[in-house]
UniProtKB/TrEMBL annotation:
SMART domains: rADc. The keyword S-adenosyl-L-methionine applies. Residues 1-10 have a biased composition (Basic and acidic residues). GO terms for molecular function: 18S rRNA (adenine(1779)-N(6)/adenine(1780)-N(6))-dimethyltransferase activity; RNA binding. The keyword Methyltransferase applies. It catalyses: adenosine(1779)/adenosine(1780) in 18S rRNA + 4 S-adenosyl-L-methionine = N(6)-dimethyladenosine(1779)/N(6)-dimethyladenosine(1780) in 18S rRNA + 4 S-adenosyl-L-homocysteine + 4 H(+). NCBIfam families: ksgA. Residues 48-220 form the Ribosomal RNA adenine methylase transferase N-terminal domain. The lineage of its organism: Eukaryota, Fungi, Dikarya, Basidiomycota, Agaricomycotina. It comes from Tricholomella constricta. This is rRNA adenine N(6)-methyltransferase.
Length: 319
């Protein structure tokens, strides 16, 4: 039988079983699930679910794959994944939805292939997996992406459903209106592309916006860059992406922070702290690397890595 990893689930499932035994195992019209509480919208279109798992389309699932599914809802996508994968670990916040997922596979050949974990995906201990598939609760979109990218060992591919605007920011290119700190940070560690656009009418309840499914493939091996450093620099220069890089470093509080970081780094290296103003050091780095008049909105990941290396060479750090 599929396993739930908390006693809370077991009690909730047992207490509700008799009440619901006369109801269909599908929750297509079931009003008891408070999806808005967890920011979830249940994928109801089976054709869209099938596209996500088909081998010749997106996930390229193999019979040996262990799959992590985030936000299974009532299991409309889960059952299709189970048909193709060796094992599925589904992480669900709502115990009632978790109960529904388990009911969907009880008495079927797939029931031994499913494990349900109840809890917040951002906090649970992730199992080993090769593929992640998620109809992502909108409020955890960014944390989910970066939790996946920081997970080791690396997974093979993630197929993730997001609000259309968020998905477009993930795949944005330098020089476009949606190129942002998020775009750069994600594309440092992964190749991302849009694979399906999904109508709001494919969900219950329909969200206010359209959705998209993206494919995220980690870069292996990952670049030897400390994320906090890369993001710390990007936080500064993308604060106003169409302003010059130098102009963003002139923002209030930036030089004070960099001075403190530099003193801390020099002390850790047992090096003397000189009296050169931090603003002069920053200006020299930008001038020597030819970034003074450039704008973050036009810089690609390689440009950003070059700039970060130049700052590190001058003893300037961002975390």
């Amino acid at each position: 039988m599929p396993r739930a990893t908390t006693e809370r689930f077991s009690r909730a499932h047992q207490s509700s079983a008799k009440k619901n035994e006369a109801k269909s195992s599908s929750s297509m019209t079931n009003p008891i699930f408070n999806t808005q509480r967890f920011g979830q919208h249940i994928l109801k279109n089976p054709a869209t679910a099938q596209k996500i798992v088909d081998a010749d389309h997106q996930a390229n699932l193999k019979p040996t794959d262990k799959v992590l599914e985030v936000g299974p809802g009532t299991g409309n996508l889960t059952v299709k994944i189970l048909e193709k994968a060796k094992h599925v670990t589904a992480v669900e916040m709502d115990p009632r939805m978790a109960a529904e997922v388990i009911k969907r596979v009880q008495g079927t050949p797939e029931q031994h292939k499913l494990e349900v974990m109840i809890g917040d995906f951002i906090k649970v201990d992730m199992p080993y997996f090769e593929v992640c598939i998620s109809n992502t609760p909108y409020q955890i979109s960014s944390p989910l992406v970066f939790r996946l990218l920081s997970h080791r060992p690396l997974f093979r591919v993630a197929i993730l459903m997001f609000q259309r605007e968020f998905a477009l920011r993930l795949i944005a290119k330098p020089g476009t209106a949606l190129w942002s700190r998020l775009s750069a940070n994600v594309q440092l560690y992964a190749k991302v592309d849009n694979i399906i656009n999904v109508s709001r009418n494919d969900f219950r309840p329909p969200p206010q916006v359209e959705s998209s499914v993206v494919r995220l493939v980690p870069i292996d091996p990952p670049p030897p860059v400390k994320f906090e450093e890369f993001d710390g620099m990007n936080r500064i220069i993308f604060s106003r992406p169409n302003k010059t890089v130098r102009g963003n470093f002139q923002a209030k509080g930036v030089m004070k922070m960099l001075e403190q970081n530099r003193r801390t780094w020099l002390a850790a290296q047992e090096m003397m702290v000189d009296d050169t103003p931090i603003a002069s050091i920053v200006d020299k780095v930008l001038e020597d690397a030819e970034f003074t008049e450039k704008r973050a909105s036009k810089l690609d990941v390689d440009d950003l890595l070059k700039l970060l290396a130049a700052f590190h060479g001058a003893g300037i750090h961002f975390s």
